[in-house]
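Methods — Computational structure assignment.
A single polypeptide chain was analysed. Its primary sequence is given first, followed by the predicted tertiary structure written as structure tokens.
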Amino acid sequence: MIARVAALPREIRQYLLVTGNYWAFTLTDGALRMLVVLYFHQLGYSALEVALLFLFYEFFGVVTNLVGGWLGARLGLNRTMNLGLGLQVFALAMLLVPVAWLSVPWVMAAQALSGIAKDLNKMSAKSAIKTLVPAGDAGHQALYRWVALLTGSKNALKGVGFFLGGLLLTLIGFQGAILVMAVMLTGVLALSLVRLDADLGRAKAKPKFREILSKSRAINVLSAARLFLFGARDVWFVVALPVFLATQFGWDSWRVGGFLALWVIGYGAVQAMAPRITGRHAGRSAAILWAMGLAALPALIALGLEWQPHIMLLGGLLLFGAVFAVNSSLHSFLIVKLARADGVSLDVGFYYMANAMGRLIGTLLSGWLYMTGGLTATLWVSSAMLAATVAISLALPKEA
């Protein structure tokens, strides 16, 4: 097996290393989220306190993507990827302290480091693909397939991580689960330090810090569309949906967690298949048409909640996940395609900063809107945000 991998072209070997790093990190990221939610709920933390544990995780995603892209261009993507792996190991180690030390501020700090680690790893993985795929039309098709596979497999594995976190908590307890993940990720980090190319993604000209803000109109437009796209998902998915399933449908926490884990796995599978679904149509027109189709779904679910809540919500959620997955894959391909070849991580980092900002805004709105207007209010706002995604996407360059 090792001999076969060694015989592969250098670009393929590097892609496998990057993808393997990303997969390993994603498993621990999904498992850690489920472990924290379930364990601290068992300790008697309120839903609001559990939600606060992830506040810095989301906030630092905004900062990390902005600064991380600059670091990747100056230092190389191998260093930012390895730094992300190392920070995740450290964040896991912080949770191995005695239970009495696991206060809200301490766990928030560990989650902040985990959030920084996650976005360094993601930005590095997405940027690295640009440097490993040849230019030209054939290269663009290969790029679309590679990006879709990386993104889709990541989300599927995050869903597997939800299951893994619950299973490890049941079998070996919180600290045993944390220790297993820390040891596994340390091994992945050691392999990455030895095998990943030293100059991967490093810009030939060292970018100045002021260059972290994109000067490309196309990147700015796509980033704004991404902000509203992910805000539209999280405004009803993050807080409102799980609470609604628990309070209105009477589901227990395991049923809610299991259903959402399966949703994420299915979502990732559709992302990976997006190139087959859209064919060669993966540019501006496809992004606009798929966003238009997605914008109608939350409004239709909101209208149908009073009629058949179970069918409309669960069926609508599955359809929303599939269409959203294609939208996400198209955006992920476009940012890598439009990013500059030299210093790709600057553009990708700026774009994922907008992604993180959308998630943060959506998360905050999700709780507030649910308290004031219920799930229906979050769905109408989701539809409005998706309409904004369509409007912004119209400004993308026609050659995109």
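Note: The first helix runs from residue 2 to 7.
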